[in-house]
Every structure is written in C-alpha cells, then in structure tokens.
C-alpha cells in the first residue's frame, strides 16, 4: 500500500511542478488545427469513397 501512495504522491508532484502546461491561446490554436485537419481528411476520404463507388458501378455495369 505504501508503494501505491508513494506513486500517487510523486505523480501529483510531477504534474504540478514539472509539467509545462500550454496556455489557453496555444490550446485554442491546436484545437483549431486539429479541427481543420480532421475536416480536410474527412473531405478527402469522402471524395475517394464517391470516386471508388462511381468507378466500381461503371465497371460492374459494363458486364450486364
């Protein structure tokens, strides 16, 4: 039990005094970047999906 309490004590101390936390503006910039990147990725994947669907439908319909 002593090891567990020591672990939590040192973890809390590490988080309070040794971790460099980003400022609010840095967090907002990072969140915006992640949002834009996610939207771009979703759009690219959506375009690929529609493209593959169109190509495969044309391919399958050519055998009818």
Structural commentary:
By secondary structure, the protein is mainly alpha-helical. Helices cover 84% and strands 0% of the residues. It is elongated, with a radius of gyration of 25 Å. The termini are far apart. Its main location: membrane.
Question: What's the helix count?
Answer: 2
Query: Would you report the number of β strands?
Result: 0
Helix and strand pattern = HH
Judging from the principal axes of the Cα atoms, what is the shape?
A: elongated
Rg over CA atoms: 25 Å
Q: How far apart are the termini?
A: 73 Å
- What does the main sheet amount to? none
Topology at a glance:
Elements: H1 2-17, H2 24-61
In brief:
With 64 residues, this protein is mainly α.
Descriptive terms for the model:
64 residues
């Amino acid at each position: 039990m002593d090891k567990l309490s020591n672990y939590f004590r040192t973890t809390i101390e590490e988080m309070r005094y040794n971790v460099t936390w980003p400022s609010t503006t840095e967090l907002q910039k990072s969140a915006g970047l992640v949002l834009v990147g996610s939207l771009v990725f979703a759009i690219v994947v959506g375009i690929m999906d529609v493209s593959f669907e169109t190509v495969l439908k044309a391919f399958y319909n050519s055998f009818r």
